[in-house]
Structures are given as structure tokens and as C-alpha cells.
Design goal:
121 residues; mainly alpha; rod-shaped
Length: 121
């Protein structure tokens, strides 16, 4: 009985040692996997931060470009309106000049007809 108990104790001790060793290996493997996962999470967060920063930069650049384009379009619109106003003023002046010249021509023709009539008499 004593031998059986001793054998059982040795077997139990070997099994405890084996269990302890397996538990230690499992903990070590878990630590390695946890460390690797932590590294991957850290890298993913860093990449996300970089991408977010690049996205903000792109959005800022797009906003600046849009603002510049809107400003240029407004300036061009003002130039078009100024050109249209100048054209309308030039047409109005040309019409006024034409009317004045027609009046002068009519007066000159009338004076010439009158002078011609006077000379014929």
C-alpha cells in the first residue's frame, strides 16, 4: 500500500509538474500573443492617426482651393458686370452721337438746300 501511495504521489507530482509547465507555457504564449496584439493595435492607431491627419490636410487644401475658386469667380463676375456696364454706356453714347450727327447733317442739308435755292433765285 505504501508503494502504491508513493507511486501515486510521484505520479501526482509528475502530473502537477507537467500541469505547471503547461500552464507556464500557456501563460508565456498568451503573453507573446498579447504583446503582438498590443503592437498591432498601436500600429493600427498610429496609421489611423496618420490617415486622419492626411485627410484633414486634404480637406483643408480642398477648402482653400474652393475658396480661391469662389473668389476668382466673384472677381470675374464683377469684371463681366463692369464690362457690360461699359458696353451699355458706350452704346448709349454712340446712339446719342449718332442722333446729334443726324441732326447736324439734317441742319447742314437744310442750310445747303436753302443756300442752293437762294443762289438759284
Amino acid at each position: 500500500l505504501s508503494e502504491a501511495r508513493s507511486a501515486a504521489n510521484r505520479t501526482a507530482e509528475r502530473l502537477r509538474a507537467k500541469l505547471s509547465k503547461e500552464r507556464s507555457e500557456a501563460e508565456q504564449a498568451e503573453k507573446v500573443l498579447t504583446d503582438k496584439l498590443d503592437e498591432e493595435v498601436t500600429e493600427a492607431r498610429r496609421s489611423e492617426g496618420n490617415l486622419t491627419a492626411r485627410l484633414r490636410e486634404a480637406e483643408d487644401a480642398a477648402a482653400k482651393t474652393e475658396g480661391a475658386l469662389r473668389q476668382k469667380a466673384a472677381e470675374e463676375q464683377r469684371e463681366v458686370e463692369a464690362a457690360e456696364t461699359a458696353l451699355a454706356q458706350a452704346r448709349h453714347k454712340a446712339a446719342a452721337d449718332e442722333a446729334w450727327l443726324r441732326g447736324e447733317l439734317n441742319d447742314t442739308e437744310a442750310a445747303s438746300r436753302h443756300e442752293l435755292q437762294r443762289l438759284r433765285e
